[in-house]
Write a structure and sequence with these properties.
The chain is of the alpha/beta class. Among the domains are: 192 residues, Rossmann fold (3-Layer(aba) Sandwich); 114 residues, no CATH class. Helix content is 57%, strand content 19%. The strands form three sheets. A six-stranded antiparallel sheet has the order 2-1-4-5-6-7, with helices on one face.
Length: 552
């Protein structure tokens, strides 16, 4: 139940607080007095989007806070789901800052708009005149039947499985398209794979072959250089490095008899002599191995040409990248070979899911058809009470060939207000007043199946008056036994049914226009209802009629 609402800096409202009680609350006011502003402010804590255009003072933030008593409404799971503090007295708050940012809170904990909306729709239902137009739409009509059928859990389970079926369908079709495309490329993939497979690729091979080819193509030059080097070290009989070093060593040994430092130098020189002699032998060995081999050059060139061709074909620069492509092609070929198995598995899963969805949809249809006769009968009974004695109302339930988000069913509400006029779709035959009465009848019946704490009617009585308005007020008063009903009305017959009454009005001052709301005393209620009866000029007759309405 909505216990109070506080509104700050919203539209023409500077600072406003309203307390609500159980039962039927009436809100009246002159046309343009700002009743719709209250609805707009309340819509903010129901998760409606907003921007800085709602700010009265563009330099301050707007705050709308609703206090709800949620005792016995089984909402604990919602709080547990989002890790929120649970309290029987729950605060929903919405703030719009001067820079246009929006923030939402549940019991002072920040939440997103979807979370705010999720709890709000379980606490309050706002019925506006716009919803009268919705009555002619298929989805709205079906939602009414579903509420009356009391199978919300079944519907939730159906939708979950329906969307899972859609996911499987999309996955199957996507895999099928990919399989068909890649099957057409299978031979090409296999050719590329075999070509790389036959190449027997080795990641270091290209570098090794390039180095070997470089040596072979310059074999004579290398061998000549090695021979000349070796001659200088040891082969020249007249002058070579080793002989010179030997002589130097001998001189150092002789001087070592007199200078100890010469001994150290001779030992170091001897070490160098041994190392250079070893280098000479190594040069001789290497030079002996290097030979020009035209057949080997041809073989290496042919192999490198193959590697370069493959790299160019696949637009890569290294054998390592070719090896990676070879691996990817292997996986593609393996995947294509397994498509049939995957498709078959998906097909089986899809068939099982389709069967499950069909079962749920059939149960929904059965439940809907079962309650339709009673719903038709009760709507007609209420329409007769509301002054349409020849009312006829019928619900046509038909089925689609394939399931949709709501099941197999499509629905059409047919209506006739006159004896000899054939029933037709509501939007084609119902006047504004008839639509209001039909909606009032449906809302009254649906509310019996809802645990919704609060219902707000925004001029649902449009197009009716007199005794019909009196009966509509009785229906609201009866609904208020099980729900908190808040009604914005311009009809005195309905205003007289309320247990509390608020009056919305505008005040003009030097700073501008502002909207205020006043809870009326019994005497003030008499005057306000009299105003609704006769206008601004309050007559004695109007005052007496107002007293009579309140007495009744």
């Amino acid at each position: 139940m909505l216990e109070s609402i506080t509104i700050r800096n919203y539209a023409l409202i500077n600072n406003l607080s309203i307390e609500f009680k159980p039962g039927l609350t009436i809100i009246t006011g002159e046309t343009g007095a700002g009743k719709s502003i209250l609805i707009g402010a309340l819509s903010l804590i129901l998760g409606q989007r907003a921007d800085t255009s709602v700010l009265l003072d563009k330099n301050s933030k707007c705050i709308v806070e609703g206090v709800f008593n949620i005792t016995n409404y089984d909402l604990y799971d919602f709080f547990h789901k989002y890790d929120l503090d649970f309290d029987n007295i729950t605060h929903l708050r919405r703030e719009i800052t001067a820079n246009g940012k929006s923030r939402a809170f549940i019991n002072d904990t920040p939440v997103n708009l979807n979370q705010l909306r999720e709890i709000a729709i379980q606490l309050i239902d706002i019925h506006s005149q716009h919803q009268n137009l919705e009555l002619g739409k298929f989805r709205y009509q079906l939602s009414i039947i579903d509420i009356f059928a009391s199978h919300s859990e079944l519907l939730k389970e159906y939708r979950k499985n329906y969307f899972l079926l859609n996911e499987l369908t999309e996955k199957y079709e996507e895999l099928q398209k990919r399989a068909e495309k890649e099957k057409s490329d299978f031979d090409y993939f296999l050719f590329q794979f075999n070509q790389l497979e036959e190449a027997r690729l080795n990641e270091t091979e290209q570098k090794d072959l390039e180095d070997e080819l470089e040596i072979l193509t310059h074999a004579e030059e290398i061998k000549n250089c090695f021979t000349m080097a070796n001659n200088l070290i040891s082969e020249n009989d007249s002058r070579n490095i080793l002989d010179f070093l030997k002589q130097v060593h001998n001189f150092l040994v002789q001087s070592g008899k007199f200078l100890p430092q010469s001994t150290v130098l001779s030992e170091r020189l001897n070490t160098a002599y041994v190392e250079i002699k070893d280098i000479s032998r190594e040069i001789e060995l290497v030079a002996g191995k290097i030979e020009y081999d035209s057949s080997r050059i041809e073989k290496i060139t042919k192999r490198l040409d193959l590697l370069y061709t493959l790299e160019q074909k696949h637009r890569v620069a290294t054998v390592g990248e070719l090896i990676q492509i070879h691996k990817e092609l292997s996986e593609k070929i393996h995947s294509i070979a397994n498509y049939e198995t995957e498709l078959e598995q998906l097909k089986q899963n899809h068939e099982r899911q389709k069967k499950l969805v069909t079962e749920f949809a059939s149960r929904l249809s059965k439940n809907r058809r079962k309650i339709i006769p009673a719903l038709e009968k009760k709507v007609v009974e209420l329409l007769i009470q509301l002054g349409i004695p020849n009312a006829r109302f019928s619900i046509l339930l038909d089925t689609f060939a394939h399931p949709g988000p709501e099941g197999f069913d499509t629905v059409n509400f047919l209506f006739s207000a006159n004896k000899n006029i054939e029933m037709q779709e509501i939007s084609k035959v119902a006047s504004g007043g008839e639509i209001s009465r039909l909606m009032m009848s449906i809302k009254s019946l649906v509310s019996q199946s809802l645990s919704l704490p609060t219902i707000l009617f925004d001029e649902i009585d449009s197009g009716v008056s007199g005794n019909i308005a009196h009966k509509m007020g009785n229906i609201m008063r009866n609904m208020a036994k099980a729900h908190q009903i808040i009604t914005i009305t311009h009809l005195p017959q309905i205003a007289g049914k309320g247990q509390q009454h608020y009056y919305v009005h505008k005040l003009e001052n030097k700073t501008g226009t502002s909207v205020h709301i006043l809870q009326l005393t019994p005497d003030e209620r008499i005057k306000e209802i009299a105003r609704l009866l006769s206008g601004e000029q309050l007559t004695e007759a109007a005052l007496e009629n107002a007293k009579e309405l309140l007495k009744n």
